[in-house]
Amino acid sequence: MRDADFFRDWMDAATAAVERDADRLTELDSPIGDADHGSNLLRGFVAVRAALAAADLAATPPGRVLQLAGRTLISTVGGASGPLYGTLLRRAGKELGDAPEVSDEQLRAALDAGVEAVARLGGAAPGDKTMLDALLPAVTALGGSSYGAAADAADEGALATVPLIARKGRASYLGERSVGHQDPGATSSALLLRALADVAVRADGAGA
């Protein structure tokens, strides 16, 4: 079972991952976006870390941790990234409700609901060269396997955006010129899933 500390550790690991890869995310965004994906996410996740550190999380349900993280991203990240990532975490948090601990299956269902909310908000579908191309296969893999498998699926999904034509967002204005570039949103989504897998391994041991 996963308590609030698990989710706080996940957000902290995600922040560290964004800190490490912020420049790479911005480089990916440069030819097909506004060249600010890394800096925007870095600002947002640093704010998440600060918000969680300042909050009294004693006896806080896991769902509330994700909702606070989501609200913080929405209020601090510019462009489309804030609303999309914020929606992912807020919707997942609402799905978890006020349970003091949640199972892996409940977390998978919550993430599934969050991804569905992201799809509705962005109007995107699989193959549109967006963060969904990493998130959807990750949630599918999590349902039948492990957190590590979910992270691997997200990595593969992000890499698979390279030959795609962007059909949503700023990159869609480039049409066929977007081919050959890895989607930065899918790449940062894979970072989020890898952070989750790393936290699960630390919590459960090598068999997670």
Describe, in plain words, how this protein is organized in 3D.
By secondary structure, the chain is an all-alpha fold. It has one domain: DhaL domain (Serine Threonine Protein Phosphatase 5, Tetratricopeptide repeat, Alpha Horseshoe). Helices cover 68% and strands 0% of the residues. The chain has 8 helices and no strands. It has helices spanning 4-29, 37-54, 62-76, 81-96, 104-122, 132-144, 147-159, 184-204. Helix 2 packs across helix 3, helix 3 runs antiparallel to helix 4 and helix 6 packs antiparallel against helix 7 (147-159). The two termini are 12 Å apart. The relative contact order is 0.14.
Q: Gap between N and C termini, in Å?
A: 12 Å
Q: Which structural class best describes the helix and strand composition?
A: mainly alpha
Based on the structure given, which CATH architecture is correct?
A: Alpha Horseshoe
CATH superfamily: DhaL domain
Q: Quickly name the level 1 CATH class.
A: Mainly Alpha
* Helical residues, percent: 55-70%
What is the count of distinct domains?
1
Outline type: globular
The number of strands is 0
Strand content: under 5%
pLDDT < 50 stretches:
none
**Biggest sheet, in brief?**
none
Radius of gyration computed on alpha carbons:
16 Å
The whole-number mean of residue pLDDT values reads 91
Number of helices: 8
The SSE order reads HHHHHHHH
- State the CATH topology: Serine Threonine Protein Phosphatase 5, Tetratricopeptide repeat
